[in-house]
Design goal:
Blueprint lengths: L15 H18 L1 H4 L6 H20 L10 H27 L4 H28 L2 H20 L4 H4 L10 H19 L9 H25 L1 H40 L13 H31 L2 H8 L7
Helix pairs in contact: 1-3, 1-6, 1-8, 3-4, 3-9, 4-5, 5-11, 8-9, 9-10, 10-11
């Protein structure tokens, strides 16, 4: 994943709103600059880069919401992010299936190739929708309107009661706001961590994955204020996020394959079909078994990482690191 653009002229000791304005404008410009690469389908990394940039922007909006003085409409941004996500999901699925088909032959390979053809057709449809969502005029309009909304939200006069924050944002430095945001994101993750003790809690584990991603983005966002003091924490969160992300992807595969097998079974009165469809029963069963096995491994990795965090008191270490003075 490409590193986020540096935020020029960011002063961590200056007012929180000014820093937030600079961050949001930078993240918006970064995302829009990825448009051409995202629409160049000869390299799937273009879509990935723009999707990550959109996630960073949306995560920053979420982090800054208590401090901004106006709501920033994000309907156009969400549409673009959803279109990017749809294409990226197909890219990842195709890569995974292409790797697996090389391990098998016969009817199983035939079935996986059939699934690959399905996903490629779905990707073409998603790409067509992405072209529409990232039309040059549409992206220009998104950039203009969102940029104007950011300026209004960061500069409009308001007192603490308007923002819902105990202390007027003007009295906070960007670094002070960062400390509160990062620790708040960690608390959210910690509250969801009990789902790791319930291996089948798919929805809860998915929410934990999202919380880990938000914590990572928050740490990366404020790293310029602490430098090396935070980079090690970002790397630790990245490992947990990756394990939880793999777990979520596999849960979606398992659910889809299981539903497909169940539907086939019910269509034949509970009996295995003697027909020879392109998408073979053997392929579906093989994939389901493989993904269930992989899921167990990634679940164990996520659980082990969290236990390591507890043993090393990740939360306390993070809190101590955030007491350091700003470096800029």
């Amino acid at each position: 994943m490409a590193k986020a653009w540096p935020v020029e002229n960011l002063d961590c000791r200056a007012g929180a709103r000014e820093g937030m304005r600079l961050v949001l404008q930078t993240r918006l410009a970064e995302m829009c600059a990825c448009r051409a690469a995202a629409l160049d389908f000869t390299n799937i990394e273009g879509v990935h880069s723009m999707r990550v940039a959109s996630r960073r922007l949306r995560s920053a909006f979420s982090d800054f919401k208590p401090y901004l003085t106006r709501r920033v409409p994000q309907k156009r941004l969400k549409r673009a992010a959803d279109a990017l996500g749809a294409v990226r999901d197909e890219d990842v699925a195709i890569e995974r299936l292409a790797e697996l088909v090389s391990e098998v032959d016969g009817r199983i390979a035939e079935g996986i190739n059939c699934l690959l053809d399905e996903r490629r057709r779905r990707r073409e449809q998603s790409r067509a929708e992405l072209r529409e969502a990232l039309d040059e005029a549409a992206v220009a309009k998104l950039s203009m309107k969102l940029s104007a909304s950011i300026e209004r939200a960061a500069w409009h006069d308001a007192d603490a009661s308007e923002t819902g924050h105990d202390q007027p944002p003007a009295a906070l430095s960007f670094q002070q706001a960062g400390r509160a945001i990062i620790l708040g994101r960690f608390v959210e993750l910690e509250e969801l961590s009990t789902s790791l003790y319930r291996p089948r809690a798919v929805k809860e584990l998915h929410r934990m994955r999202i919380a880990a991603k938000r914590l990572r983005y928050a740490i990366e966002l404020f790293t310029p204020c602490w430098g090396d003091h935070l980079e090690e924490f970002s790397k630790e969160v990245e490992k947990l996020q990756k394990s939880l992300g793999e777990l979520h992807d596999l849960d979606e595969w398992i659910a889809a394959l299981g539903a497909r097998l169940q539907a086939r079974n019910e269509a034949h009165g509970g009996k295995t079909s003697t027909a020879s469809p392109a998408l073979t029963q053997e392929a579906l069963v093989w994939l389901l078994a493989r993904f269930a096995k992989d899921r167990a491994r990634h679940y164990a990795n996520a659980l082990a990482r969290w236990q390591e965090w507890r043993a090393t008191d990740f939360g306390k270490r993070l809190s101590v690191a955030l007491k350091c003075e700003a470096e800029t």
